[in-house]
Amino acid sequence: MFIKNDKPTKIIGFQDSSIAQQYFEVFNKEGLENVSIITPEDFFSLSDKNSNQYIVAFYIDMDLRKNVCDLLDELGLDCLTYIDDTVYMFSSSKIGKGCFIGHLCEICWNASVGDHCYFDNQSGIGHDVILGRNSIISSKCYVGGRTKIGENCKFYLNGSVLNNITICNNVTLCALSSITKDVTIPGTYAGRKARLIDGSTTDQNH
Q1: What is the spatial distance between Cα 160 and Cα 140, in angstroms, rounded to a whole number?
Q2: pLDDT-derived band of residue 204, with 50, 70 and 90 as boundaries?
């Protein structure tokens, strides 16, 4: 399912990126016309940004991704949202603009997904979860119910978050790792009971 208009679609990413190619192939398979991939630099330099609709398709550089999302919102530009037909989602849940929700994902009741988020295949969030803007849920990653996650967070393959957890902005969870308690310091976390391995000086309110 697309939430879109009839403007040309610009996928903001990189030609050699697997996520940009994923978007491009899925959109073409779904019959979306006039789709192309442009780099973030190309997006910034466009003279007439209002003539397109956009979706962001990269997440290695989260600072750059945040800058792109900030400009999309600042200018009030149109953003496409894609929700795969296989997604199990309750009607009480909410999905923000510019999101991509992949194959066999699960969005439980009363969950709220912020703008510009990405769910890779077979990932999910539990009931009453609040997922902040510009956050990434990788394949087979699951977030337990009643958890609140800040903005610009990234959870890699087979990561997990227990229920009733609060996580601040700008947190990365490594693959095969689990968050079992509140996270108040931005940075990268890893381990069966994830610990901070690389702190960030980024302001949590940003």
Answers
A1: 9
A2: very low
Q: In the chain, how many domains are there?
A: 2
In whole angstroms, give the CA distance from residue 142 to residue 122: 9
Which of 60, 80, 100 terminates a domain? The answer is 80
CATH number at residue 37: 3.40.50
- Distance between CA atoms of residues 172 and 96, nearest Å: 21
User: Pick from 46, 64, 80: which residue ends a domain?
Assistant: 80
For residues 112, 127, 167 and 105, what is the CA-based torsion angle, rounded to 10 degrees? -70
SS3 state at 36: strand
Q: Is the pTM of this model over 0.85?
A: yes
Asked if residue 112 and residue 30 are part of one domain, the reply reads no
Tell me the three state secondary structure of residue 69.
helix
The parent domain of residue 45 ranges over: 2-80
Q: Are 103 and 195 contained in the same domain?
A: yes
From the candidates 103, 116, 127, 206, give the one annotated as an active-site residue: 127
> At residue 203, does pLDDT exceed 50?
no
| pLDDT tens figures, 82-104 | 999 999 999 999 999 999 999 99
Question: Is 206 in the active site?
Answer: no
CA dihedral 40, 41, 42, 48 (to 10 degrees): 90
